[in-house]
Amino acid sequence: MSWRALLPGRLLLLLPGSWALSNAQRLHSMVGQVLSVRCQYPPRGWPYEKKVWRKEVSVYECARLVASSRPHTLTQASRFSIWDNPGAGFFTVTMTGLREEDSGHYWFRIYHPSSNSISKSKRFYLAVSPGEPLP
After folding, report:
1. Residue 121 forms beta bridges with which residues?
2. In this predicted model, what pLDDT tens digit does every residue of 38-55 receive, in sequence order?
């Protein structure tokens, strides 16, 4: 159950609860838009599992763009924000002011609190196209 809905100036994507490592899911947006991605996972209580949004910079390296600090708290870093609701089993990442150079592979990752190892991960490819010139 994956779908995209284009709203005025905003792209909203809902990703399925399946987190198997596989081919990247493809997304498309335009320069200047806002991208919001809501990821579902099995609801959790305590201990809190950190959620991270990363951009792949090479085959072996990802740059952390934003990470959740605690549940029900918006964390923002530059143009990126993340909000997590573990009781409901979803988190939302938002990128504002999309640029062509934002095109590339991204990862959502959930980390075990005790070992800091990755418990769930999802990869996708974002293509950002130039916007239509204004009249």
Report:
1. 109
2. 888 888 777 888 899 999
